[in-house]
Amino acid sequence: MSEKIYVTYNDVHKLCQEGAKELEKFNPEVIIAIGGGGFIPARILRTFLKRSRGDRSKNIPIQAVGLSLYEDMGTDDYEEKIGKEIIRMQWLDFSALNEHKLDLIGKNILIVDEVDDTRTTLHYAVSELQKDLDALAEKLGRGDEKTTLLVFVLHNKDKPKNAELPADMMSSGRYVAACTTGDEWIAYPWEADNIDEHTRLGLAQKK
Ligand code: 5GP
């Protein structure tokens, strides 16, 4: 890894605007934001997706999930798990969703994160969500309703990945990365101590 890439809030906004153009044809009906990096992009995307359907359309509901890559917690097996295993900090509560009449079965569901690095997190999110929805649909006798998953990230790092996403997702355009980078560290604005300096560095890099 050489240079750090400074991404400004305006960059994030514009990447979401670009991404929404790719995503709108799939008509996303629910957004699942992977926290914390997916939260701000998800909120911005919602505005552009709504606008593309006309301002009188309903807001797309956003659900939050919390996933974290395993970090050394002092256990014996950490070397096998570190950077590969996901810890589920927060997941969808399907019974609460049902109470609030948010039905995910048969919907077009957009999963949002900020960066696809080793792909471990996105692989986990997509495969677990698919598994849970298949089980729920089966239980409710609605196995014939097709739920479609889409993925949006601001940045995809062009590097060997530790995990895959479904081949049909990749081939049908249901994986949208607004920007492809090398294997560099990306500094996002929401992590900045000094946002003015961060923005200055981001603007200077563009010159
Ligand atoms: P994964 O390796 O599973 O694709 O990414 C795991 C997580 O690591 C990401 O969701 C993100 O929070 C963090 N991450 C990976 N690369 C970067 C990066 O370049 N910048 C920042 N800020 N976070 C990163």
UniProtKB/TrEMBL annotation:
Tree of life domain: Eukaryota
GO terms, biological process: GMP salvage; hypoxanthine metabolic process; IMP salvage; XMP salvage
One Pfam family this sequence matches: Pribosyltran
Cellular component annotations (GO), alphabetically ordered: cytoplasm
Phosphoribosyltransferase domain: residues covered: 24-130
Keywords on record: Glycosyltransferase, Transferase
Keyword hit for ATP-binding: no
Molecular function terms, GO-annotated: hypoxanthine phosphoribosyltransferase activity
Name of the protein this chain belongs to: Xanthine phosphoribosyltransferase
Record organism: Starmerella bacillaris
Lineage: Eukaryota, Fungi, Dikarya, Ascomycota, Saccharomycotina
